[in-house]
Amino acid sequence: MTGAPDREELIAAAQAAALLAYAPYSHFTVGAALGFADGRIVTAANVENASYGLSLCAETVAVAKAMAEGLRGGLQAVAVVGGDGSGPTLTPCGRCRQVLSELAQLGGTDPLIYCVGESEVLELRLSHLLPLAFGPDSLEK
Ligand code: THU
Question: Whose CA is nearest to atom 8 of ligand 1?
Fold first, then answer.
């Protein structure tokens, strides 16, 4: 039986993904790894743009990748790391919290978010980072 990826596996996947970041403007590389109930891991890095405001965060690219591969739920855990993890603890930006929440809500899960930093790995539920989230159900009349 395949289980959800464990914490260390997910963090290692996020660190590897950060190596592929396209961040020539901020020079701040980020890697994200989404862990699913069936053991799948979907990774991504931030993708910046010469029109700075159009840059995409690693978590957002990862959700888009996963959904474009047909995944619609089972999101159990997410690891997010800045660079090689030797900097301050990285918590997902507000937009990424909302983007992650869409995929989580589709599958009825409240994923653990591993926020990696030099001196700690914060382990927080998405609902803690984004309480009272707006989502697919919010549109029902
Ligand atoms: N970034 C992410 O990839 N994820 C976050 O949650 C925060 C910020 C990226 C966006 C930009 O490419 C760089 O980090 C600096 O803000």
Answer: 57
Superfamily of domain 9-116: Cytidine Deaminase, domain 2 (3.40.140.10)
Atom of ligand 1 nearest to the CA of 25: 12
Q: What is the pTM of this model?
A: 0.97
Distance (Å, rounded) from C-alpha 79 to C-alpha 113? 6
| Inter-helix orientation angle 7-18/58-68, to 10° | 110
Q: Is 44 in the pocket of ligand 1 (CB under 6 A)?
A: no
| DSSP-derived 3-state class of residue 120 | coil
Nearest to 78 by CA among 128, 110, 35, 130: 35
- Each residue's pLDDT tens digit, 21-53: 999 999 999 999 999 999 999 999 999 999 999
Give per-residue burial for 104-130: e unless 16+ CB within 10 Å, then b: bbbeebebbbbbbbeeeeeeeebeebb
Q: Is the CB of 74 under 6 A from ligand 1?
A: no
Look at the chain and count its residues.
Answer: 141
Residue boundaries of the structural domains of the chain? 9-116
